[in-house]
Amino acid sequence: MTIQQRKQSIILAGLVLLSVAFACPATLSAKPPGADGNASFPEVSDSWSPDGRFVLKNVDSPRDPQSAHSIIITDMQTGQRAVLYSYLRKVDLLWSPASDALAINDWDSTDAAQCIVFRLVPRRERIDLDQDLAKSRPRDGEKKLVTERRDHDRSCVRIIRWLDAKTLLLDLEGHRPDDRRSSSFQLQKPVIR
User: Fold this and answer.
1) Contacts (Cβ under 8 Å, ≥6 apart) of 100
2) So what's the pLDDT on residue 51?
3) Residue 177: what pLDDT?
4) What is the pLDDT of residue 171?
5) Given a cut of 50, is residue 21 above it in pLDDT?
6) How wide is the angle at C-alpha 41 spanned by C-alphas 37 and 42, nearest 5°?
């Protein structure tokens, strides 16, 4: 092979690589591999919002007995990074379909979850669903179950899923020590106004 043929082969190979790179920009992604969408921490170490704007990382902090884990949020558009939430045992993360909010079930014990929603854009806001439910006017049975959780030997409010970009489906359940029956309700709760 002559020097001229070798130069032509190199130029041709370079043009082929460039044409592939420009022809398929959708296949090239700045988003590194990792878990997409809903996740349970600490079982997995990261979770991406559906639109790829936010990434959550689980960080262990074994020296702090009050919060053994922290969730670090990174906004991939601005590069800002912050501790979003700290927890002791396990959390379920549920991204809103619009990627602008995150719902968390914090399982601080085996049968009770603290339910929190973080609105991420346009500004960061924390909504404690237990407090929000106690202030709202759900049906009498639901209100009693939420406000009298201490009277139940097992009581749980948990987020099931997002119904749309603003509304969550919640499950409220409780068992009284003197009664073998359980009370259970599902409730649609608008959380983003």
Assistant:
1) 119, 120, 121, 165, 192
2) 93
3) 59
4) 86
5) no
6) 140
- SS3 readout for the chain: CCHHHHHHHHHHHHHHHHHHHHHCHHHCCCCCCCCECCEEECCCCEEECCCCCEEEEEEECCCCCCCCEEEEEEECCCCCEEEEEEECCEEEEEECCCCCEEEEEEECCCCCEEEEEEECCCCCEEEEHHHHHHHCCCCHHHHHHHHCHHHCCEEEEEEEEECCCCEEEEEEEEECCCCCCEEEEEEEEECCC
Paired tokens of 63: 């020296």
Residue 123, φ and ψ in degrees, nearest 5: -135, 155
**CB-neighbour burial class of residue 98 (10 A; exposed 0-12, middle 13-18, buried 19+):** middle
Which amino acid is it at 77? Q
46, 58 Cβ separation under 8 angstroms = yes
How do strand 125-128 and strand 69-75 relate by DSSP bridges? unpaired
As given in the structure block, the two tokens for residue 94 are: 């549920």
Structure tokens at 53: 């704007």
Q: Using 50, 70 and 90 to split pLDDT, how confident is the model at 124? A: very high
